[in-house]
Amino acid sequence: MTVLDTRTLNRATLARQLLLDRAALPVHDAVAHLGGLQAQEPQEPFTGLWSRLRAFDPAALSELLTGRRVVRTHLMRRTVHLLTADDVLAWRTRFDAMLRQRVLGTYRRELAGVDLGELAAAGRAVLADGEPRSMGELARAVAHRWPGAGPRPLGEMLIAALIPVAQLPPRGLWRVKAGVRNLPLPAWLGRDVDPLAEDDAVGQVLVRRYLAAYGPAATADLRAWSGLAGLPAAVKAVREELVAFRDERGRELLDLPDAPRPDPDTPAPVRFLPAFDNAILGYDDRSRIIDDAHRGLSVAGERVVLVDGRVAATWQATDETVVVKPLRRLTKAERTEVAAEGGELASFRSDGESDRVRLEAG
Predict the structure, then answer these.
(1) DSSP H helical ranges for the chain
(2) Threshold 0.90, pTM exceeds
(3) Residue 65 backbone phi and psi in degrees, to 5
(4) What single-letter DSSP state applies at residue 272?
(5) Which band of pLDDT confidence, cut at 50, 70 and 90, is reported for residue 321?
(6) Angle at 319 between CA 313 and CA 320, to 5 degrees
(7) Which of 187, 179, 5 is nearest to 89 (CA)?
(8) CB 317 within 8 A of CB 349
(9) How far apart are CA 149 and CA 139, in angstroms?
(10) What is the distance between the alpha carbons of residues 220 and 254, in angstroms, rounded to a whole number?
(11) Nearest to 13, CA basis, from 255, 241, 185
């Protein structure tokens, strides 16, 4: 079985994640290709798409949200993602059990004795009037029935697990600060969530879509991205469609046969990634893109800079200046490229009013 070294996997990841060359895709198609974008920080997806798409216009993403073609909702790993309306309606039921278990993993003691079916029915009854509500408002409306649980656990279970909801605009629009207001997905999108198919057709779709955007990858990586338990039956069902490799650690990696696996010597441009980007979080073994010594950055919400395809710096934006802090000594050529891309990012963030970037000593 062919062994793919770390650099080969890195270039494959960059190509699948649209980070090797900016893509000429419509925003909707990019969101679909990536299987959603991590979006717990509402403004971060705009940077993620700017780094991936040519001539990205942030208004295009805002219009997709207000036009109900892209949705903010809890899904992968019980975190907030941007997904296309078609994907969230097709996929949501497949995530139900995982979402419940993850909330229970945090609030098992508080929710002991709470009948989740009754809780879901009570929450749906409150939302039936079509009025968007915050998690706190919904929880307080039902809390009298379960006074021992407390509003927070009840709200988390309702909004993140039991009732498929959309976080409505203006939350998540470009340069807009707004609280979270929720409506059930069918009320917002005008279509019901798909029921669970007995043959786990959705699981098979998830395997293919994941590999298209993240492969070659192990089933542990698929589990890390989705939060689902590895999808073993779905992997088995599609396995004859796939090709297999091994990585340098001996893990079996699966992939779509015709997916891009660029030459490992392909040049990789500097890219600025937003907080919690799935190009990093979408793997169990993240060594293809970030050193193990820096792995904690990816879960701490640090924004990172890729140099030669790997995490080599962190960045922040203050006023109209992008500030870069290297994690290793950068060469003169690397510093020049980082400064140039950082200036472009500053210009994007300021509508062309500033291209200031400050690169600290490495």
Answers:
(1) 6-16, 27-33, 44-50, 58-66, 85-91, 96-107, 116-127, 135-142, 151-157, 185-189, 201-214, 219-226, 232-238, 278-281, 295-299, 332-349
(2) yes
(3) -70, -45
(4) E
(5) very high
(6) 75
(7) 187
(8) yes
(9) 10
(10) 11
(11) 255
